[in-house]
Specification:
Length: about 300
């Protein structure tokens, strides 16, 4: 019996070494890469992408790191399962030696999950706190007003309900509302709804915020770090034309944003102000919704943009 036991130990050691080698290979594959590099190599592990704001990058990094940790744990667990299947497979009619308990093993599979959950909880709390953090002096304040089934964006001169609106952009059935914002600046959004619950969502920001009616206001901040045009949507079922309640976010440089805001303050329309800073005056990521009330005139810019997509 002793000889048989000693003979099986080298084989067990080799299999355990194989498990360690599998984990080591996974770590070697991931070593030397940034979180974003790893995510892009594997299709972002189901996440939409790294995003276009500082807050989005933090959430993306947490997601990718969590998936990598889960894969490492998975490789170990799967390896142990297959090792047990092979090592302790039936070899005859004799019952194997019955073991009542293994204290080191029980401590291991109790303590290890607790540590993993604690670490994930710690970093999740840190990222959530950073994403929800509000600064004392944001660079820009925008009030988001949702209504069936469109958007109004008010550029404000301060925070809270006592602040005044400097200029606005209001959408209609014929013209998609365009929200112009600068990159590299802290932008505070203050949300309100005129009727039912809506939800402000730009997929590239990687999170959304519900827009509540009444005195309840969701307030949050983002700092954009990439110029471009991004579709925005209502993410809360709000009625007949919910699916078409879109807008467009235009992220531009601070200089162009100041020029846009000055043009709006001077009385120009949003389309004229966009033209003044060299941007397409109409939305390019989405188009006005069909009210199904017969023939209606879409703006020329939206038709041209839709045809060019």
């Amino acid at each position: 019996m002793g000889a048989s036991s000693s003979a099986t130990r080298p084989r067990a050691a080799k299999r355990a070494a194989g498990l360690g080698l599998g984990g080591a290979l996974l770590l070697a594959l991931l070593a030397g890469c940034s979180v974003e590099d790893v995510g892009s190599k594997f299709g972002h592990f189901g996440w939409p992408g790294p995003g276009v704001s500082l807050q989005a990058h933090k959430m993306y990094d947490l997601w990718i790191a969590s998936v990598i940790a889960a894969l490492i744990v998975g490789v170990g667990v799967w390896g142990l399962i297959f090792w047990c299947v092979i090592r302790y497979r039936k070899r005859g009619e004799d019952l194997p030696v019955q073991t009542r308990f293994n204290m080191p093993m029980e401590v291991l599979y109790t303590v290890t999950p607790v540590l993993i959950v604690a670490v994930l909880f710690y970093y999740t709390a840190i990222v959530q706190t950073d994403v929800d953090k509000l600064s004392k002096n944001p660079d820009q304040i925008v009030q988001i007003t949702a209504f069936k089934w469109n958007w109004e964006f008010d550029y404000r001169d301060g925070m809270g309900t006592d602040a005044k609106t400097v200029t606005s952009t209001i959408g209609s059935s014929d013209v998609i509302p365009i929200l112009v914002l600068p990159v590299g600046e802290k932008i505070r959004f203050e949300e309100t709804s005129r009727d039912v619950i809506h939800s402000f969502w730009v997929p590239e920001l990687l999170f959304k915020r519900d827009v509540m009616p009444g005195d309840v206001r969701n307030v949050f901040e983002v700092t954009l770090d990439k110029e471009g045009r991004y579709v925005g949507r209502c993410a809360e079922l709000c009625g007949t034309y919910h699916a078409f309640m879109n807008f467009e976010l235009v992220a531009t440089s601070s200089a162009k944003f100041d020029q846009f805001l000055a043009a709006k303050k001077a009385g120009q329309s949003t389309q004229d102000a966009l033209t003044a800073i060299g941007e397409n005056p109409y939305a390019t990521t989405t188009q006005p919704f069909d009210t199904r009330r017969g023939t209606h005139s879409w703006n020329q810019g939206a038709e041209t943009a839709a045809a060019g997509k």
